[in-house]
Automatic annotation (TrEMBL), chain B:
Record text about domains: The N-terminal unstructured half of Pup provides a signal required to initiate unfolding and degradation by the proteasome but is not needed for pupylation, while the C-terminal helical half of Pup interacts with ARC to target proteins to the proteasome.
Cross-link type Isoglutamyl lysine isopeptide (Gln-Lys) (interchain with K-? in acceptor proteins), residue numbers: Q65
Subunit organization: Strongly interacts with the proteasome-associated ATPase ARC through a hydrophobic interface; the interacting region of Pup lies in its C-terminal half. There is one Pup binding site per ARC hexamer ring.
Family (UniProt): Belongs to the prokaryotic ubiquitin-like protein family.
Organism, as annotated: Nocardioides simplex
Protein name as catalogued: Prokaryotic ubiquitin-like protein Pup
One annotated GO biological process: proteasomal protein catabolic process
Keywords, ordered alphabetically: Isopeptide bond, Ubl conjugation pathway
Biased composition (Basic and acidic residues): 1-12
Pathway: Protein degradation; proteasomal Pup-dependent pathway
Top-level division of the source organism's lineage: Bacteria
GO MF term set: proteasome binding; protein tag activity
Gene encoding the protein: pup
Amino acid sequence: MSVRRVMGTEVEYGISVQGQPTANPMVASSQVVNAYATATVRARRARWDFEEESPLRDARGFDMSRQIADPTQLTDEDLGLANVILTNGARLYVDHAHPEYSTPEVVTPLDIVRWDKAGEQVMLDAARRAQQLPGSPQIVLYKNNTDNKGASYGAHENYLMRRSTPFADIVRHLTPFFVSRQVFCGAGRVGRGQDGRGEGFQISQRADFFEVEVGLETTLKRPIINTRDEPHADPEKYRRLHVIIGDANLSEIATYLKVGTTSLVLAMIEDRFISRDLTVDGPVGALRAISHDPGLREVITLADGRRLTGIQLQLEYLDLAKKYVEDRYGADADAQTVDVLARWEDVLGRLEADPMSLADQLDWVAKLKLIEQYRSRDGLAWNDAKLQLIDYQYSDIRPEKGLYHRLVGAGRIQRLLTDDEVDSAMTNPPAETRAYFRGRCLEKYAPDIAAASWDSVIFDLPGRESLQRVPTIDPLRGSKAHVGALIDKCATADELVRALTR
Amino acid sequence: MAQEQKQPRKSDEADEATEVAPESDVAERKETLDDDVDAILDEIDDVLETNAEDFVKSFIQKGGQ
């Protein structure tokens, strides 16, 4: 494979109720999700179907007991929190104390960017609608990962992988990549340590919250490689690699590179192409050391004794990936794979030569540049509240207030997509996966859909006693090519279900 | 902006131009850069939350995944 594979992201947004710092964030999150659902979801609201969820399934081959699991790990219990499926195939819901948006399944890095950015617009729209209710305070959402007071919340990535790939190979070859990819996809953070009390700037929002190398947990003792094994697909054929180490990116290029390079590395692991041992000595410490040096000169030690910077470790993967793509595809490599390789190389070269030249491409550099400008103009010390404010407000998703958005508006950050491309992805599903079937069904037959999830759509048809469950276990079936014409043709859900079950 | 400073000057003509007025050229560029920085900071000053200290204190989140 190339950069193409079935994948998606899920982002928990920071939430604050203006003027009410003690407001219950679960209630506020529900207000946001419900406001969007009420305004946009027609007729009956389909429930999320939890039947296929198994968050305690471990990729290493065992189940954690529900009794010993921390309650925050039980993500399959329907707590009555707001939870809706959108016509673009995405899921909008409340997870823990944050509103969360999971993209529909897509197959290219650029489509990840498109439906991930559409998620920001959905959240923006949702927060604005929540505010229109009489007496409602303003709720503001942040696409970041920490309050800098000890709490962190995630921006996860999901990659469908072959089940036949040994999990030990994934751990071995992916850990050094995850320790170092932050040099281009970190979102930047003012403060060090989980509570942010240490002074200075670091590359990643999340690095200080990772404590172990491999594990099932996502809310405590966070691991570099997460072992949650819920494929939402045929478990004999696939695993879903659940990646929890990434930062929430605003920059389209950072998201594109994060997902594109990771997908390529996974392809090399699946094809057993990585012959070098890049194992890092003490990866948890190395992750933090790299994050804590925005000068990018910090050297980490590999198990074989070599000493490399984060950039040099990334260059090892880039070199392998270029050889891999050349070996497997030659001149026939698809355009996005070629583009990801070219951008990856360009970005690593610039990071070596002049990191600040990437202020128009990468989040952490854009944020650092702004902070350095403020420091030099106003003579601010690192513990000045204004610098912390800039860090938070960079991720405010409102275009009029968010500093990322102000920089884009001033032409200082490059984009890959137009507003129209992003806006249309708020309501339209991607064409190449089962998300197309899910989204189109919700758009056209909403009154007759009782529930839906990643791997099913459940119809409640007039005149039928039992619910009709249409499984969508194969992520690549139910695409536009597969069911587009059929859905166009069927005026009612009943016609569709008849045609599908004939 | 670092990119702007690194504009390669390969042709003879450019070299001549540099030789003729190096100081004013550099000064001009420096001025443009300063204006540039000022412009974006002015814009951001206008949208930054007014009481940084209060804002930072009240930005409290519950942990998530």
